[in-house]
Amino acid sequence: MTHTTDRIAALSAEAAARRVAAARATAFAGGAVAAGLGLGVLGAVVLLLWIASPFPDSGLGGALHVGAALWLLAQGADLVRTETLSGAAAPIGVTPLLLTALPGWLLFRAAASAVRTAAGGEDGPRPAVDVRTVAATAGWLLGGYLAAASGAVAYAAGGSFRVDILAALLYVPLFATAVTAAGAWSGCGRPSLARVGPYGREAVVALRAAGTAVGVVIGGGALIGAAALGWHAGAAGRTFAQLSAPPAGQLAVLLVAVALVPNLAVWGASYALGPGFAVGVGSAVAPAGASGYPTLPGFPLLAALPDEGSGGFVGWATLAVPICAGVLVARSVGRAADAWSLRRTASVASVAALVTGVAFALLAAVSGGPLGTVTLAAFGPSWWATGLAALAWTLLLGAPGAVAMRWHRDGAAVFRPRTWAGWVRALRPLGWPAATARAARGLWGRCGPAVRRRVAALRPTRAVSASAEVPVPAVPPPLPAEPPPPAVPPMPTLPPAPIAAPDPVAAPDPVVPRPEPDPGPE
Predict the structure, then answer these.
(1) Sign of CA dihedral 172, 173, 176, 182
(2) Are residues 220 and 179 in the same domain?
(3) pLDDT at position 332, please?
(4) Among 146, 162, 191, where does a domain finish?
């Protein structure tokens, strides 16, 4: 019996070990497949353009090399061109954000599916999340993805159009880790942060408000970019023929422009926030005006730049976008602050502003970068200026607005007190220490009676200016006084009359019984 039990336990442990090994292998393969699909899609697009091109510059190997380099560029790695007119290597650091969506979506879906399968929730309700299992599955999937990415880096490290190895080793793992973490969170059922820690609900409100602000400003930037392209549609259309005459070349230019449309939205958002962006060293494009344009290549998106000079009313009107974002942050936090103090409400709004600033700093850093040397070394928005501007707008408008909404909701409780002690108690949430309240109470206890007496003494008096002529009302003459009535002499007082003593009552005569007659003998 004991031998059978031990045998069953050993088989169960072996089966569990096999399941764990299979899950890890599946996750590793899922990461490698996600990387391979991304590489394959971009490689197919490049091969299609290479086949359609009438005068290809390189062979099949060069086309695949470009596809691998673009896949790494989409994840933040920098590229280097060695064949330039000056002979010096020219870096390419502007990441097409639309290309970033492809590997990001593939890795996110792979991580979510692997974690969901490992947690046992593929079919039916999801069980309790095991943190160790989720972390192990995500780690193995990330390992498979980075293994495929390492092969792509080694393949694209040489040639005239190569990848910067140091930048690839730094930014590609960061990108993959962030996306894998998001996919693992989705695979676990998107657990809310409201149940994590004592300030979980505040964190959720701050993140939601920051997401609203980022979405509003990015949407406003996209509208600004679309309006600029529509205004300069003719100049943008002429650039296609200037860059390439064959249809395949014009199609390639169109695809590159479409891949840079999210970058245009971020640049428009930076323009609306105030710092603007640069299109070369020493240039500036901001609501205050545009200046310092260098000699730029003919490209559809660059043709939409405003003319040099002051921005005018249209430029300053774009500042309404961050104002709307700050108001929405105040509304989001103020509506959620149902039982919070004014200090906590201001803190949550400040955290939302900080998250908004960090998000725009990251977006600005990814959407810009160098496109060459010397003049084109600075291209796009400044990450620190854009982040500080987003932080300032949302902090200066969001925090006071949220506090005002919270105060307005409890306005009846704030303005109800009529005594000084009630005012002090009402204002304590603003941060008044108890010592200040006690000092104010003692000072008023000493000076209050004297102040009240002084106010009561001054209340009937009215200050009249010496130069002012105040009409004096006419006083009617006094009426003649009537003579007083004659005095009535007082009544004489008489002495009290003596009271006679009552007459004595005579005592009744004694009753003597009368003798009865003797009847005699019968």
Answers:
(1) negative
(2) no
(3) 92
(4) 191
